[in-house]
Amino acid sequence: MPTAIAAPPSIVLCTFNAKFIHASLGLRYLLANMGDLRSSSVLREFTIARKPQEVAGELLKLLGPPQDGAAQIIGLGVYIWNVKQGTELVRLLKAARPAVRIVLGGPEVSHEVELQEIVRLADFVITGWGDVSFPKLCRALLEGPQPMLKVIQGEQPPLNEIALPYAEYSDADLAHRLLYVEASRGCPFKCEFCLSSLDQTAWAFDLEKFLAAMQVLHQRGARHFKFVDRTFNLKIDTAARILQFFLERLTDDLFLHFELVPDHLPDRLKDLIVQFPPGVLQFEIGVQSFNPGVQGRISRRQDNVKTEANLRWLATASRAHLHADLIFGLPGETLESFAAGFDRLYAMRPDEIQLGILKRLRGTAIERHSAEHAMVYETEAPYTVLQTGVLDALTVQRFKRFARYWDLLASSGRFTQTLPLLLEQDQRSPFHAFLTFSDWLWQRTGKTSALSPELLVDALADYLCGACGLDRPNVQQALLSDYSRSGARSNPHALQGLLPKQPAPTMRTPKRLAQRQGRHQNPDQALR
Ligand code: B12
Ligand code: SF4
Questions:
Q1: Does residue 225 line the site of ligand 2, with CB under 6 A?
Q2: Whole-number pLDDT of residue 66
């Protein structure tokens, strides 16, 4: 008997992720809520590196030839990182097969929709949440009555009416990708640069159901959990339950990422946090600015004293990997006030300081400062600030290089011995020391990418021994220790004759993150 050929799907959900390691949680929610349409729906994920033309070809092949009268639907998840590729994809799909119904959704097409080319090209847009509204729209397209509106506001049902998406993670996802999970949705705070400030509040999923789903993932072998909750430490009871759940399942390979607000860390949470060994917890802590004037202007409520106390506690008493964020270019933030914030944060010794540059996200209230603070942003995604009333365009460029080099030298964890030497080279502060080095490195290389570890070692040696006049053996010792530990196996000029011969290392993708963390957690080499 010939085997039955499976019918092609009538609904394809797709998106371009930033990288392969990121799996789309949003689309898995949509899939999990398709009901009887689940069997005719499939998920296809691509990365932003893929050519839209190839993706269009793959999607059309998957749908098969047009069927008489039957609708074929492509749902596309649109975000700031993929709107360019998405626009091109929709253009190609509509040109190749005009009858395919293209439905957009995602944060990038949830605001200012009337201004967007991708929206003009597509058939429908669901703004906001898509969990319930996407299946409804598909049903209408497949069975009628046909929808009347092009732009549909996504329904926000109580969270217990939404099916959890975690069974949609495949075994391959579990083995090779970060698993995004969500115990709550939304944020009650109003920071004007952030899209989550438009949420009315934060809504919690039923904790028992959520933990039961985590248990299933854990039993299936999942060990890397990345919580996308905007403020994990908002409800202490919930946060404590979740930490307790994972404490009971501690293994060497467990890795948990949470986003925290910095000024809210009661003892109950601290008592749990200290029980985790190194390498398990990673906290992303948005500090953004220490400048009270700027904080007030952008409606960010943050107690700087508590923030500082909590960060110091986390850096000294816990073994969590601390990743603290600052944003450059906020309205009214000068280079000097940013420098003061950076130095204050550096003194608290987080493992990483992530330097972001302000973006004007569609729909956010930061726009209200544009005229008064002479803010100029890129008109295309990611809408990065180009200049402000107190930062000219050259200063913003200068800072972008600083941020890039900071990422390579500090956040990478590759230069934990050498960095402190470098940051002592300006009496004013670590920020100024790094800024001077950054200007020097730019002068010397003219580039911010394709800088190999060997090039950086040689540049640091020249700068510290030449421009700063430090003793060469001391500098070499620091560089040698950093370079040997980094896993790089070439032969920088500055370390000629000093490197031992070692076998080449092997690396597996899911462990990279842990390795980067690991570099920070060697107590001798950590920043803290
Ligand atoms: C994971 C993540 C990332 C990952 C990428 C993940 C990936 N898949 O590739 C990384 C870390 C790389 C990243 C980077 C950035 N991110 Co980010 N990120 C997130 C985060 C934390 C989680 C996304 C998520 O899974 N949410 C949970 C799901 C359930 O929600 P959702 O994705 O919005 O999906 C729902 C709806 O949007 C809708 N929907 C989604 N897809 C579709 C498709 C269809 C057809 C329909 C109908 C509906 C629909 O239905 C879903 C269910 O309700 C969000 C914050 C958050 N908690 O949402 C920010 C967020 C998406 N990021 C944001 C930003 C600004 C950035 C950065 C620019 C930050 C920066 N560095 O400055 C960078 C961009 C990098 C770049 N290359 O340009 C903004 C979004 C702005 C925008 N307009 O897209 C968010 C919302 C944060 C915020 N509050 O401001 N990010
Ligand atoms: S920055 Fe953080 S606290 Fe502020 S609105 Fe966004 S998610 Fe909420």
A1: no
A2: 87
- Residue 408 CA, ligand 1 centroid: distance in Å: 25
Rounded to the nearest whole angstrom, what is the distance from the C-alpha of residue 353 to the centroid of ligand 1? 21
Residue 517's pLDDT is 52
DSSP E strands: which ranges in 358-422?
A: 376-377, 385-387
Contacts of 418 (CB under 8 A, 6+ apart): 460, 464, 475, 478, 479, 482
Q: How far apart are CA 330 and CA 357, in angstroms?
A: 8
Q: What is the pLDDT of residues 101-124, one digit of tens each?
A: 999 999 999 999 999 999 999 999
Residue 249 CA to residue 204 CA, distance in Å, equals 23
pLDDT band at 22 (very low <50, low <70, confident <90, very high): very high
Counting ligands in written order, the one closest to the CA of 16 is: 1
Residue-wise pLDDT for 189-247, tens only, equals: 999 999 999 998 999 999 999 999 999 999 999 999 999 999 999 999 999 999 999 99
Show Cβ contacts of residue 419 under 8 Å, excluding neighbours closer than 6 positions.
409, 410, 527
Cα(420) to ligand 2 centroid in Å equals: 32
Chain centroid, CA 448 distance in Å: 21
Q: The pTM is what? A: 0.94
Residues 6 or more apart whose CB falls under 8 angstroms from that of 149 comprise none
Q: How confident is the model at residue 5 (pLDDT cuts 50, 70, 90)?
A: low
191 lines ligand 2 (CB under 6 A): yes
Ligand 1 atom at minimal distance to the Cα of residue 18:
9
Q: Measured between alpha carbons, how far is 431 from 342 in angstroms, rounded to an integer?
A: 7
CB of 196 shorter than 6 A to ligand 1: yes
Centre of ligand 2 to C-alpha 430, Å, is 28
**231: Cβ below 6 Å to ligand 2?**
yes
Secondary structure element (H or E) that encloses residue 397, with its range: helix 393-406
Which atom in ligand 1 lies closest to the alpha carbon of residue 230?
57
pLDDT in tens, 119-143: 999 999 999 999 999 999 999 999 9
Cβ neighbour number for residue 504 with a 10 Å cutoff: 6
In one-letter notation, the amino acid at residue 92 is: L
What angle separates helix 472-486 from helix 453-461, to the nearest 10 degrees? 170
For the chain, state the CA radius of gyration: 25
Please spell the DSSP secondary structure of 343-372, one letter per residue.
HHHHHT--SEEEEEE-B--TT-GGGGGTTT
Find tokens 């002592």 and name the residue: 424
Quote the ligand 2 centre to 356 CA distance (angstroms). 15
**Among 59, 81, 180, residue to substitute to test ligand 1 (most atoms within 8 Å of Cβ):** 81
- What's the rounded Cα separation, in Å, for the pair 471 and 468? 9
